[in-house]
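Researcher: Quick test of sequence recovery. Tokens follow.
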């Protein structure tokens, strides 16, 4: 919970963390020297594999950790359709996702709770 809350711009409800413990969501931690430094969380849904959260502590960014986590998600997803949501102002994340072949699909209004601009950009990738 600490790794996710410290690496993400949005606050997740306790039900999100409970779904990881129950196994409803797939979650992995990236570690270095016994310390957790990043995470990836996704859920298999009827319309595809939904990337819920991916993040790396600032001091470990630009070292391939995020790319390794993204590749783990892409290779482990049960669906050929994978997708995610991102805030429009998070241009760094949008560029990161684009590097992995995710393409903008649609604006999803009222996606995020607790944000002034709560709309999200849905991005999707079809795995060949």
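Model:
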């Amino acid at each position: 919970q600490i790794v996710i809350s410290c690496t993400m711009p949005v606050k997740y409800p306790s039900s999100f963390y409970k779904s990881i413990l129950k196994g409803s969501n797939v979650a992995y931690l990236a570690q270095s020297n016994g310390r957790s430094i990043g995470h990836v969380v996704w859920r298999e849904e009827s319309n595809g594999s939904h990337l819920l959260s991916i993040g790396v502590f600032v001091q470990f960014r630009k070292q391939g950790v995020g790319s390794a986590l993204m590749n783990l998600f892409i290779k482990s997803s049960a669906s050929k359709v994978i997708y995610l949501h991102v805030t429009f102002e998070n241009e760094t994340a949008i560029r990161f996702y684009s590097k992995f072949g995710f393409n903008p699909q649609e604006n999803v209004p009222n996606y995020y709770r607790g944000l002034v601009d709560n709309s999200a950009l849905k991005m999707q990738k079809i795995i060949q």
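Strands lie at 26-32, 35-45, 48-56, 81-86, 103-108, 120-126.
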